[in-house]
Specification:
Length: about 700
């Protein structure tokens, strides 16, 4: 292809024939509908065969070169009245002489009273159909690389050329025959041929399904094997506490544990008692009480003479956890300390020394605890709060330091079963699916922007009565797209007009962490009435007095996100409000779900909970969107599967096959699994490079 094209392709990530073959079409044009010239109908894309008649080139009034050709009927050679026109493409005239029989595909428009083909694709009728007369692939391009050129290369790659066998025939089959037969999957070569140049829509579907199947299977095998590796050659410290001690700690808590908390604790205890390091995700809605579970796990570590680290995403959250733990443990509990960047000088040196000597049992901090070189005497449990993917990556960091702690990850994102058995198969799950502090009392309403002039005075009244409010926007700054509410503009406007005189503050992710923490601290201390913020307020912070959550541009948030934001208010069980403001107030299925209810077995109507909403989000928006920021693991290496659009049955089927394979042949050593083993290795290599 030469240097120049080589560089262009490199920009698309294509270095080898294999890369080229895996550069899949982003969409397709249906040019498969052949119509006799005289039957052309405006509207749809159609294909005709025609003899090229008189051709003229001129310039339009705007100075654009235009080529126009009369199309003659191939049967009798007479003019059909239909014309084809092209703007730009002056080469048409040189390439296609008058009298040639050609195939033309494109959109048909009225021109006066005759139909016209506007900028159609054209090929000699005698040539193999590549650009016309079939379902035509459309590829992602880069500047300087023409669509036709790339399509032609791919055609040669899958169909071969003169005296050239197609490179697709060298692609190794990686799926075992048994799976292909059982699941009715195409061979990989046929699949690649059909995905680039489909014979029809049915074949295209089958081809995509087959490629997606392999990709999901390989991803799950990789995750499953990683898990097995953790299990196999890892030596964690077995942590045990006797029942009597644990029950005494629980009895000392200021509240009674929920059933979910008890179950989660039992699962964690069983994991901790083994030398296989735990990899457990503790899932529970905002406010479901994950902290106390983590605190008890850490206490088990302390009672076993080992240390625990509890890591939060922000310094403020770390401080909050530190205070919670101190009060949950009370007298005679583990020796705990806070280690954030605000702890400095002599205090810091002392804390570090006590961590190193084992004089501290539980250390609460941010992720810097693992990233910086904090030396523990005997770290046996790491809790990573609200950043579970990060937690998984940290396992490698720990291992480099020669330790293999039990990992407890927490998340407020409810992960639907289809995803947990596939993308999260490297983790065990514990779920807190009830709220401890009694029912929340939050009224959610969806309103158009036209409701704002009435809403702000209402909000002002609430604030004047001492209730605190959040106003959340999708953007930080204003930009060209003025329709999207921004935190800065909203804050400025409200401070100047509707909420003048109230204590307003602005909070967003571009502010330095210190400044953000300071504002949250003041908000928690009730020194601020209304906090205008972006979704930085989403995670974990407890502002018991906040009773109003206004979300502007609500259609721009995922359901899980909206639900988490809503979870920031009404935390004492007081009457609270969540106002979702959206231009799409009336039509959005998603926003409607936020106010929907379901009937409990006992007949009461309750709002959809986090799991219901997550499932809905998955249905409406697909997994990719759903996972959002949380999606930063290996699933980013997927090249075919669009998580935003993946068929749940495919997830189920591949999960089942993965279980079967790993049960029978965990190391993928059998000859029939050699292909899969190679594919897993490829995936790890790509992941390592990424
Ligand atoms: P999250 O799961 O969002 O991290 P927290 O652990 O911060 O939730 O708990 C939210 C609030 O609920 C805290 O004030 C905590 O003390 C309280 N809480 C936790 N468990 C219980 C319980 N079993 N009964 C009553 N209150 C509880
Ligand atoms: Mg929490």
């Amino acid at each position: 292809m030469g240097d120049r094209y080589g560089k262009l392709l490199e920009r698309l990530g294509i270095r080898t024939f294999a890369d080229l073959l895996w550069h899949l079409p982003t969409r397709y044009l249906d040019y498969s509908r052949f119509v006799p010239l005289r039957m052309l109908r405006p509207g749809k894309e159609q294909t005709v065969e025609a003899l090229l008649g008189r051709m003229t080139q001129r310039r339009t009034s705007r100075g654009q070169p235009m080529t126009e050709v009369e199309l003659n009927d191939p049967a009798d050679g007479l003019p059909s009245g239909v014309k084809a026109t092209w703007f730009g493409r002056q080469f048409i005239r040189e390439r296609f002489p008058e009298g040639q029989l050609v195939r033309l595909s494109g959109e048909v428009k009225w021109f006066g009273r005759t139909p016209q083909l506007a900028n159609p694709k054209i090929e000699p009728a005698s040539a193999e159909a590549v650009h016309t007369g079939r379902i035509v692939p459309v590829y992602g391009l880069t500047e300087g690389l023409k669509e036709g050129v790339l399509r032609r290369w791919l055609h040669t790659a899958v169909e071969g050329g003169p005296k050239r066998s197609p490179v697709v025939d060298e692609v190794p089959e990686r799926l075992p025959d048994s799976i292909r037969e059982r699941r009715g999957l195409l061979g990989v070569r046929d699949a690649l041929r059909e995905v680039h140049f489909p014979s029809d829509w049915g074949h295209l579907f089958a081809a995509r399904r087959r490629l997606a199947f392999e990709e999901l299977l390989v991803l799950q095998l990789a995750l499953g094997q990683r898990r097995a590796r953790w299990t196999r050659d890892a030596k964690a410290v077995a942590l045990r506490a006797d029942d009597a001690a644990v029950e005494a700690w629980i009895a000392d808590l200021p509240f009674v544990l929920t059933t979910g908390q008890r179950t989660a604790l039992a699962q964690i205890r069983a994991d901790l008692a083994r030398t296989v390091p735990m990899s457990r995700l503790l899932e529970g809605d905002v406010g479901s009480g994950k902290t106390v579970v983590a605190a008890l796990a850490a206490r088990i570590a302390a009672a076993s003479g080992a240390q625990a680290a509890i890591m939060a995403p922000t310094e403020l959250l770390a401080e909050q956890h530190f205070r919670s733990l101190a009060s949950l443990y009370g007298e005679g509990g583990p020796r705990i300390a806070l280690l954030t960047s605000s702890v400095s000088g002599a205090a810091r040196r002392e804390t570090l020394a006590r961590i190193a000597s084992g004089a501290l049992d539980v250390v609460v901090g941010t992720h810097a605890l693992v990233e910086e070189r904090v030396a523990f005497e005997r770290l046996a449990l790491a809790v990573v709060d609200e950043q579970h993917r990060f937690g998984v990556r940290q396992r490698a960091t720990f291992r480099e330091k020669g330790i293999d702690p039990h990992l407890l990850l927490t998340t407020a994102t409810p992960i639907p079963q289809t995803l947990s058995q596939t993308l999260y198969r490297d983790l065990d799950m514990s779920v807190l699916n009830e709220m401890p502090a009694g029912e929340r009392n939050i009224e959610t309403v969806v309103r158009g922007a036209d409701a704002l002039p009435k809403m702000w005075p209402w909000l002002r009244e609430k604030a004047e009565q001492g209730e605190q409010a959040f106003v959340v926007t999708p953007r930080i700054e204003e930009d060209a797209d003025a329709d999207v509410p921004s935190a800065e503009a909203t804050h400025r406007e409200l401070a100047r007009n509707e909420l003048r005189g109230l204590r307003l503050a602005l909070l967003h992710g571009k502010m330095p962490a210190k400044e953000r923490d300071e504002i949250m601290r003041r908000f928690a201390a009730r020194e601020i009435d209304v906090l205008v913020a972006t979704t930085v307020v989403e995670v974990g912070i407890d502002i018991p007095n906040a009773a109003v959550m206004v979300i502007l541009g609500a259609e721009r948030f995922g359901l899980a996100q909206l639900h988490q934001l809503r979870g920031r208010v009404g935390r004492r069980g007081q009457r609270a409000f969540c106002v979702l403001v959206s231009e799409k107030a009336g039509e959005s299925e998603r926003l409607a779900a936020m106010t929907a209810t379901k009937r409990r077995p006992d007949g009461t109507e309750v709002p959809l909970d986090g799991f219901d909403l997550a499932r809905k989000d998955l249905e409406i928006r697909g997994a990719g969107e759903f996972l959002g920021e949380a999606q930063s693991g290996m699933e980013n290496e997927l090249r075919i599967v669009d998580l935003a659009d993946v068929d749940p049955t495919l997830l189920d089927e591949t999960a089942l096959e993965t279980d079967g394979i790993l049960d029978a042949d965990p190391q993928l050593e059998r000859p029939e699994h050699a292909g899969l083993a190679a594919a897993v290795e490829d995936l790890w290599r790509r992941y390592a490079l990424a």
